Amino acid sequence: MKTYQYYAGGNWHDPATGQWIDSENPALGEVWARVPDCNADDINRAVQAARGCYDQGPWGRMQPAERGRVITRIGDVITKNAERLGEVETRDNGKLPKNITPSLKSWQTDSFYYYAGMCDKFEGSLLPTEVPDMLNYLRWEPFGVCALITAWNSPLGVLICKLAPALAAGNAVVIKPSEHASVSTLELMSVLQEADLPEGLLNVVTGYGKSTGEPLVDHPDVRMVSFTGGIPGGRAAAEVAARQVKPVVMELGGKSPQIILSDADMDLAVNGVISGIFPATGQSCISGSRILVHQSQIQNITERLVDVASRARVGDPLDPATQVGPIANRPHYDKVHRDIENALAAGAELLLDGRGKGPDQGYYIGPTIFSGVTNDTRLAQEEVFGPVVVVIPYADEDEAVRMANDTVYGLAAGIWTQDVNKAIRMAERIQAGTVYINNYFNAATQSPVGGFKQSGYGREAGFEGMRCFMHTKSVWLATNPNQPDPFPA
Ligand code: NAD
Questions:
Q1: How do residues 27-66 score in pLDDT, each as one tens digit?
Q2: What spacing in Å lies between the alpha carbon of 159 and ligand 1's midpoint?
């Protein structure tokens, strides 16, 4: 079992608390590593290191093209070490290697190259004001030190979405991964030694949301926060940030609808809907966990969903035959069990029971399908963040849209139909940051993602993803200075 230190100013440190947090391998239900339980002193060290790198170090003064070359090196090192990092992440949160390593080698690391290229192309502008004899220009500037707070379901993927644009914008960062899965982020710092990064550019503190995350958000030298997690944690972090009127980006949860229209290609829709939740054991923010089906087709479609989902091989994520891995940690495993029991107690009909599937040791729950509830029930409204879907009938397309939007969330939605015009019209009416038509789960560095409503605000990826890590400055330059005496005698 390895005991980790936290990373600040280019060095490794024991936590001031002298305390560590056990990190479990959910495939076995065994502790396999210990990560520091950092407190405000540790956070201050990390933030001061980042601030030093930005204020006095090379980073704040570096030419954009050179900054781009540094970011390119990060992409190269991650690509080279993708297998090692993917394996660590699998041990730490149970995600299947095939759902980590290929992305790390492709579109996720591509974001470093995408944003590296943007460093010297992000242009300011000259503003066409009517004020005579004035040059008014707009500069995009970094905040300085940003806090990047990430969730446990996909620590590296979530981090990369923030890290590449934050650095390209010119910021130094302090990263706080989840207390349930910090090891891959710490290992990333270790492999990045070979990228020869400026000291203090990247810093990682580990610990709990309340005792580590909140003081990080509250640190006066942290000027912006990018948060990925659930609504309660996001709300608490945003409240702390609000005390100093600090900008935040919130990437929160979802209860995303998958609308199967009656003219859909049913094989495509059933496979797509199943693939949109179960392969990641439902632990993806955009998982399509509410399946809306025309009432005339409910029996046919639920039978087909159950048939496909019941074939999933639930097991050890390191076994190449496994199709659905474990729940990522013990508290969450208990929560998913509680959610299933609550749904049963509320009268939901269990069509496929994933409890007891998979190996005895470890935190396994297989695909679970419910029906027999309306859209206003807890099962249909609250994020389970596990392999649990609910199938709900709708009477007509207006009702399908109404139900799709009738939740506090607005992260993603799927529409399955052979009528493209109808799909486009429906996509306009859906309140979600991403809408998929006849596909699900696609993502690309160029394509901004984020939430409507309580799924969050701000965007990741694309130009917008970089703008979130910058603010504008308007500079007025008098071209023919002429300042008359304001108080002539
Ligand atoms: P969480 O909110 O419990 O924790 C997320 C991170 O925030 C952790 O690092 C945690 O320690 C920290 N944190 C918690 N409370 C905090 C506080 N008061 N101040 C500062 N930091 C705090 O979420 P989780 O359980 O780790 O992750 C699951 C959730 O994340 C799900 O709701 C899922 O949908 C969401 N998620 C969203 C996206 C997205 O891009 N929208 C991506 C992945 C996961």
A1: 999 999 999 999 999 999 999 999 999 999 899 999 999 9
A2: 12
The CA 209 to ligand 1 mean position distance, Å, reads: 9
Token reading at 266: 């049913």
CATH class of the domain defined by 2-252+451-475: alpha beta
Q: Establish whether residue 382 lines the binding site of ligand 1, counting it when its CB lies within 6 angstroms of any ligand atom.
A: no
Selected catalytic residue, list 187, 214, 251, 383? 251
Options 89, 146, 460, 468, the catalytic residue: 460
Distance CA(155)–CA(140), nearest Å, equals 29
The tally of CA atoms less than 13 A away on the side-chain side of residue 125 is: 4
399 included as an active-site residue: no
pLDDT in tens, 379-394: 999 999 999 999 999 9
CATH 1.10.10.920 fits 257-437, yes or no: no
Sheet holding 412-416, edge to edge: 349-352, 368-371, 388-394, 290-294, 257-260, 412-416, 434-437
Residue spans of the domains in the chain: they are 2-252+451-475, 257-437
